[in-house]
Design brief:
Blueprint (H helix, E strand, L loop, with lengths): L2 H47 L13 H30 L5 H38 L11 H18 L2 H10 L5 H6 L1 H15 L5 H40 L1
Length: 249
């Protein structure tokens, strides 16, 4: 393909991606009122556990509709992401070798899987502890939870954990470019513990040690998983290098 043909192909993929995003947002806006109930459930359970009214509030006339629209946009982007990735794949795949195509597809699949696992961990494990802790500090006051501020907290926690669960992918690329090795990762494990502790202290939305440990536990497991991933990468690189040396000989 010529340069102009590449530009035409790129334009086609961008248009198709925008169409997919638009369709995803329409679906997202349609289902966002129901999804709001799922998002509100952890907060309602925490309020019920503290023997409080589980009704959430909004403090401006447009508070509810703004949240529905915002959530619909986010849902639309999530729903359209497979289609967008598929368009990127159609644009990139013709220029890749067979083994490179397989590697890219595995990378995309594993990235999406780990991100969703991180979100699931945040929703089912992290949020109940965080919200229960926060509600326990009501003192002589009665909490009135604003839906928009609550959504901001949910978004930070779930997105942060989704990104944290991408740690093995990051280590994979560092190992692929020879920047880290399994021996190096294990040798510097104590520094990894220090960094993970600092990160957990920064991103944990509550100051209690239990919540911080809940954040730290998956980060340690993901680091060890990254060590295994780097070992696989290094072993394959050495095998490929050995085969290349035999072919040259």
């Amino acid at each position: 393909m010529s340069f102009l043909e590449h530009l035409a192909e790129l334009r086609t993929r961008i248009i198709q991606s925008l169409i997919g995003i638009g369709a995803g947002m329409i679906v997202g806006l349609a289902v966002s009122p129901k999804v709001l109930g799922i998002i509100a459930r952890p907060m309602q359970l925490a309020l019920r556990g503290a023997h409080l009214d589980d009704k959430l509030i909004y403090t401006s006339p447009t508070g509810a509709i703004n949240l529905i629209i915002t959530l619909g946009v986010y849902l639309g982007l999530v729903l359209a992401s497979p289609w967008v990735l598929y368009q990127v794949w159609l644009f990139v795949a013709p220029g890749l070798y067979k083994h490179e195509r397989r590697a890219v597809w595995m990378f995309v699949t594993s990235s999406v899987f780990l991100f969703l696992v991180g979100i699931a961990f945040g929703y089912f494990v992290m949020l109940p502890y965080v919200l229960k802790f926060l509600i326990s500090f009501q003192g002589p006051f009665r909490p009135l939870i604003d839906i928009n501020e609550y959504f901001d907290l949910i978004f930070i926690v779930l997105l942060g954990l989704g990104l944290i669960f991408e740690l093995p992918i990051l280590i994979f690329f560092l190992a692929l470019f020879g920047l880290v090795t399994p021996k190096m990762l294990l040798k510097n494990f104590r520094y990894a513990v220090l960094i993970i502790t600092i990160l957990a202290a920064i991103i944990t939305p509550t100051p209690d040690a239990t919540t911080m440990l809940i954040f730290m536990a998956p980060m340690f497991l993901l680091y060890l998983l990254g060590v295994l991933v780097s070992a696989v990468v290094v072993r394959r690189k050495r095998r490929a290098q050995a085969m290349a040396n035999q072919g040259a000989a």
